[in-house]
Design goal:
Strand content: 15-25%
Helix content: 25-40%
Shape: elongated
CATH architecture of the largest domain: 3-Layer(aba) Sandwich
Strand order of the largest sheet: 7-6-10-5-11-12-13-14-15-16
Number of strands: 18
Radius of gyration: 23 Å
CATH class of the largest domain: Alpha Beta
Number of helices: 13
Distance between the termini: 48 Å
CATH topology of the largest domain: UDP-N-acetylmuramoyl-L-alanine:D-glutamate ligase
Length: 392
């Protein structure tokens, strides 16, 4: 790809630089190879501009960085090497848009989930629902990439290394080959850090869900308003026109999301115990080693058994089912597949039974709200003592 094609309508390039051949993109100077565009971004510890010299030595053919004035020494170094420095106001977003342009195609259906708790389980449940419908689907998030075991390339198992919170380059460099290998549906976690740092910009997101918001990551976002503003970007900035949104109406922040979607061509479905919810939860009760959930929708009541532990897992499952339905799966098939869901690894996961008859459950809960929710959800399922092991 030529530099002019990569930068078209995104960033201005100097005369004569348009025909430069680009062979890759890098945000880490140690990964720069001949022909790469290097993104020199400001970080919390170091500034990428410190590594422009290393990137040029490694073969970078262009550098993208912020609009702040360049050090004279760095500018001269790049000029002498014939490497254009392209400056812009928001280099992180430009990086994401360039990555989306460089690595194609994307899966035809992309669903993203944001919220303090429930992202991992909901995306994994969505992937399972799609795969049960015989659609080729993967989930990307805290667990890495799940679902790739079903993909084969040249007769061999197709797999990729795990990605926890991928930068936009890693994300697009990953999903493009997945799409080429046959993946049509992608479920992913949209963390507040990722949204704030524009890592998901450039993705064509068709489905977006909001699970809940509670105190977390305030060391980074400073206050709840900033934390929520990052989450809301999924709906205000990234969800494509004509897409669909799923919102937990029981959460205090839900109405701000709903208000932000009023003037857009977005299909919105709400869920929760709230009597105004589209999918109204009537009850979630323990039943054997699982749960029974009753949900009312358009005058019909659905009785749904779940092989899951914890009432909030029922909420995650319902969120995934609504997303799957809005993404094209008939409602009967979407809700009807919920009894077959399996817990994501480490998310209210029953690992084995104790010889005394007790269930042993592993959960990722690491915030006060998440731990309280986990224990509160399991208490009704325990007929005797509820023992807890928490910590490292």
């Amino acid at each position: 790809m030529h530099l002019t094609d990569l930068c078209h309508q995104l960033i201005t390039i100097p005369d004569g630089a348009g025909t430069i051949n680009v062979t890759g993109l890098s945000v880490d100077s140690k990964r720069v190879a001949a022909g790469h565009v290097f993104f020199a971004l400001a970080g919390t510890q170091r500034n990428g501009r410190e590594f422009i010299s290393d990137a040029i030595d490694a073969g970078a053919v262009a550098v993208v960085t912020g609009a702040e004035p360049m050090a004279a020494e760095t500018s001269k170094l790049a000029q002498d090497a014939g490497v254009p420095i392209l400056q812009c106001e928001n280099p992180r977003r430009i990086m994401a848009l360039m990555a989306a342009r460089y690595w194609t195609p994307q899966p035809g259906m992309v669903g993203a989930v944001t919220g303090t708790n429930g992202k991992t389980s909901t995306t994994e449940f969505l992937r399972q629902l799609w795969q049960r419908a015989t659609w080729s689907a993967v989930a990307v998030g805290t667990l890495g990439i799940t679902g790739t075991e079903l993909l084969k390339s040249g007769g061999a198992l197709f797999s990729l290394p795990p990605l926890t919170t991928p930068d936009s380059i890693s994300l697009h460099a990953t999903i493009a080959p997945l799409s080429k290998a046959g993946v049509t549906h992608l479920a992913l976690e949209a963390s507040s850090h990722g949204l704030e740092q524009y890592r998901l910009d450039g993705l064509n997101i068709h489905l977006a869900a909001f699970t809940n918001l509670s105190r977390d990551h305030l060391d980074h976002h400073q206050d709840m308003d900033s934390y929520f503003a990052a989450k809301k970007r999924l709906f205000t900035d990234l969800l494509s026109d004509g897409g669909s949104a799923v919102v937990n109406l029981d959460d205090a922040y839900s109405h701000q999301i709903l208000d932000s979607l009023k003037d857009r061509a977005i299909v919105v479905k709400t869920f929760g115990y709230d009597e105004n919810a589209d999918f109204r939860i009537l009850s979630i009760t323990p039943s054997g080693d699982g749960l029974d959930m009753q949900v009312a929708y358009r005058g019909e009541t659905w009785h749904i058994p779940l092989a899951l532990s914890g009432t909030f897992q029922a909420l995650n499952a319902l969120t995934a089912a609504i997303m799957a339905h809005l993404g094209g799966l008939p409602l009967h098939d979407s809700l009807g597949a919920l009894p077959y869901l399996k817990a994501a690894p480490g998310r209210m996961q029953t690992v084995h039974g104790h010889p005394c008859g007790a269930r042993v459950i592993v959960d990722y809960a690491h915030t006060p709200d998440a731990l309280a929710a986990a224990l509160g959800a399991l208490r009704p399922e325990a007929t005797g003592k509820l023992a807890v092991l928490f910590g490292l």
